[in-house]
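Work through this protein:
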Amino acid sequence: METWDISEVEVRLSAVDDETTRLRLDHSAIVPEESWAEYGPGAVGVGWDQGLLGLTLHLRGESVGDSVAWQVSDEGRRFATASSEAWGEAYRATGADPEAVARAVAGTTAFYAPPTDPSS
């Protein structure tokens, strides 16, 4: 097993008041430098955002329906793109080089919301 095959996820639930629970999720991993350079924190961040959207909808008794169809729909692609851009802003806020941030956002967005036109 490679060291980058290992990650640790810690989930904590805590009561805020009688009707509200706070969920805190910490995900730690050793990421190869080339993967970090290509995707940055959005690599897993967008996936967690999508998963948490699914959990939120489930708890409300709702659903996106066919999750694969949703991911390639205009709505799913907008969600993935906005999430990728938000992770890019978080990355930028750490003091990361703006060019590295732009590459990471582009790589993550292309992964989660690839161009629909194959010639793009």
